[in-house]
Write a structure and sequence with these properties.
The structure is a homodimer. In chain A, 40% of the residues lie in helices and 16% in strands. By secondary structure, chain A is of the alpha+beta class. Chain A has a single domain, classed as NADH Oxidase (3-Layer(aba) Sandwich). The two termini of chain A are 26 Å apart. Chains A, B: It is an enzyme of class 1 (oxidoreductase). Chains A, B: This is Malonic semialdehyde reductase.
């Protein structure tokens, strides 16, 4: 932080306590909502690639970046997904411009020579450690899912993450060949009005979630 | 997005494909690095509370927001943590201005009347579902860990997340009374120069991590 008041393209080093402006903090966190109702405006592949080009830079263990995306776009694919989604969520999958199946790739080690060249020799060790790979893939994909939600908002898109579905059935339906493991789905688009009929839920205070030693 | 070129306090709706300026995208994702070397500048409790006041708004299942923080600040606490950290990471824990033990609270359901008042009656059901609560707490804490990393950067802080430690020993050392489950530690401070001696690692392309159906 500097002692001067500087607002430069969204970086505001004097708006304590943040280095980004209030507008950016609102867009990414404070005013963002989980969206259930989207307009018909499409979400392009270019937009999704741009979202990935942000989230991919977030840190993961050994840079394994195991998050994978199955982009469900066509009416046929949407119906195939919807049949595995809980009743209360199904209509939203059918109505969203696009739904992302966020999955973990347990074969992340195939990419170690590119992602972690100084540890490329560990690819052979990982090959024999299927359970460790499943755990690492899931853990780091979930961390990347956090980056994904923020990156979608940074790209001007709205997100509606949903966990109520049969993940094993989704894997069998879509991911058997790749071997990816689905974790969650995220509806993506542009909000229709407020985009949700829920009142904003409360959060715990810092004092309730922290201890200092 | 609008068709006008508007740059307003860091929101740039014409800088396709992002709704934030290049400077914000760089700060939060593209130019951010995992930092190992920090200056002596302290990190205050007020700064950490402000970071939490961003990350807390990120979505979680049923709004359970199970992420908890043990803030390791004193030399004594730092030594207690360091003895459970792998050799290669220990010096960084001892040198960082502050280290966060990021943990999951399996008793998130105690807060359901506040966090999800329309589902407050589920608190009783969750009480009998310890395994489900452990899974939900861990999954959603990891997603919130992604929000935490971005929120630290949005607050002008640098982060050095590390996974190489004995989590069970950390739980016994610090978290037995609370019952929280540690997931990862994050060193926090202000980078000393570049803050890392690693070259920037490569990432996979969107085409390598996605399929469209």
């Amino acid at each position: 932080m500097t002692t001067d008041t500087t607002i430069l393209d969204g970086l505001d080093f004097d708006a304590a306590p943040y280095a980004v402006s209030d507008e950016v903090a609102d867009l990414l966190f404070r005013e963002a909502r989980t969206i259930g109702a989207f307009t018909d405006q499409p979400v392009t592949d270019e937009e999704l690639a741009a979202v990935y080009d942000l989230l991919k830079w977030g840190p993961t263990a050994m840079n394994i970046t195991p998050l994978r995306l199955l982009v469900v776009r066509t009416p046929e694919a949407r119906e195939r997904l919807a049949k595995h989604v809980n009743d209360g969520n199904r209509d939203r999958v059918l109505a969203a411009p696009v739904t992302l199946i966020v999955a973990a790739d347990p074969r992340f080690h195939d990419h170690l020579p590119v992602l972690a060249p100084h540890r490329a020799e560990m690819a052979g060790w990982f090959e024999g450690q299927a359970e460790t790979r499943e755990d690492m893939a899931r853990m780091n994909t979930l961390i990347q899912l956090g980056y994904l939600i923020v990156a979608l908002r940074a790209a001007g898109l709205d997100a509606g993450p949903m966990a109520g579905l049969d993940l094993a059935a989704v894997d069998a339906e879509f991911l058997a060949e790749k071997g990816w493991r689905s974790q969650l789905i995220v509806n993506v688009g542009h909000r229709d009005g407020v985009g949700t009929h829920h009142a904003r839920a409360r959060r715990l205070d810092y004092g309730q979630v922290s201890l200092t030693v």
